[in-house]
Amino acid sequence: MSNVCPSSPEALLTRQASAPVNLLGLTCEQLEAYVQGLGEKAFRGRQLFKWVHQLGATEFQAMTSLAKGLREQLVGLAELRELPILRDHQSADGTRKWLLDAGQGNAIETVYIPEDDRGTLCVSSQAGCTVACGFCSTGHQGFARNLTAAEIIGQVRMANRLLDPSGRRAAVSNVVFMGMGEPLLNYEAVLSAVRILLDDNAYGLSRRKVTVSTSGVVPFIERLAAECPVALAVSLHAPNDALRNRLVPLNKKYPLAELLAACRVYLQSGPRDFITFEYVMLHGVNDSLQHARELIELIAKAKLHCKLNLIPFNPFPASGYRRSSPENVKQFAQALQAAGIVTTVRKTRGDDIDAACGQLAGDIQDRTLIRMRRIDVGSSPSALGSQAL
Ligand code: SAH
Ligand code: SF4
């Protein structure tokens, strides 16, 4: 087996002989190395990088500050390819959802959620997911493949372009890896994408405005802390190992004690002084006051500065779970708050997409996707079981 890194200059130049290189997924450094391989000075790579991400150019010929010869070379050797759009769905409140074709009958979704002071894009990192959480429709569909860095960053570029075709204003101010897939099980591609998001010559987002949400892949939480810390959300969902093993099967590999220890390590280098814990509220499963007490104790023992985000479950037919009642969610939240834990409840909007108030309702998302799936991609397994914020 070759041990050449797939995005090293050698590998990129070798690939030129065959398939075009998709430049969307290359960091500035990699692009500099790439153009040097073509006999150009490194700064041309940075210029190219700005054209691709800051200016959103879709064709090499439009990159007028690059020499004509280089542009022509790029036309023959490289490409700027995003996943094709299968469906573009816009709700009255400005929430917009794209279903993208990941090939071979697979589709992924990207969701834009506008709010007064920001525009959040929820991106997918994999087509499907191997973690197989029973309450998640992505988890139910199995795993198709990892997305490439180009396919991840392509979602951001596409959203900015379609949301403001004039290119004057970048609509996306925040990116959350809360779409389809487990980002830390596609670490290298996600890392490149995050680096591009943070780069001032590309999207220039601050570390606090990029959130990676994980079901708890401990070794990669530690690597992200060391290599490129951004805001971290951890899908907790249960206050003890027995229940978490059932809800998030990855817990059998990385149990709570290890996960919480990794969160503590993360806080030392992360851009925020807290970890966000996501907790999906499942009726009769993890939503009793006894669970709340256990959770309070777990957090106190872990000595972790965190915030709790309670997510009302978004039902889908095969899940077998039910959403906790609003009263139950309220009581659970109050118990946590009384213990001094900052707790928020993610709003759902029920059936009426017009009643939306800037927060994505997974209900709508799921139902839309199920409908889209029927219409567009036959038996494609695409559907998010998640909410974006
Ligand atoms: N794989 C990552 C990120 C994608 S899921 C993770 O699990 O964190 C984003 C969030 O949506 C996670 O907290 C996930 O547990 C939650 N989620 C998944 N299915 C859901 C459902 N049916 N209802 C509500 N939240 C769900
Ligand atoms: Fe995968 Fe996250 Fe869904 Fe679990 S909740 S199956 S980790 S996408």
Commentary on this structure:
This protein has 389 residues and is α/β, with parallel strands linked by helices. The chain folds into 2 domains: 71 residues, Orthogonal Bundle (DNA polymerase, domain 1), CATH 1.10.150; 303 residues, Alpha-Beta Barrel (TIM Barrel), CATH 3.20.20.70. Helix content is 37%, strand content 19%. It is built from 13 helices and 14 strands. α2 packs across α3. The C terminus is likely disordered. It binds S-adenosyl-L-homocysteine and iron/sulfur cluster (SF4). Iron/sulfur cluster binds next to α5.
Helix content: 25-40%
How many whole angstroms does the radius of gyration measure?
A: 21 Å
CATH class wording of the largest domain = Alpha Beta
SSE ordering: HEHHHEEEEEEHEHEHEHEHHEHEHEH
How many separate helices? Answer: 13
Query: Which fold does the CATH topology of the largest domain refer to?
Result: TIM Barrel
* CATH architectural arrangement of the largest domain: Alpha-Beta Barrel
Mean of residue pLDDT values: 87
Total domains, how many?
2
* Helix/sheet category: alpha/beta
Q: Given the C-alpha coordinates, what overall shape results?
A: elongated
In percent, how much strand structure appears in the residues?
15-25%
Count all strands and give the number.
14
How would you write the strand order of the largest sheet? 3-4-5-6-9-10-11-12-13-14
Let me know the largest β-sheet: 10 strands, mixed
Give the termini distance in whole angstroms: 41 Å
* Poorly predicted ranges: 349-389
CATH-assigned homologous superfamily of the largest domain: Aldolase class I
Q: Which molecules are bound in this entry?
A: S-adenosyl-L-homocysteine, iron/sulfur cluster
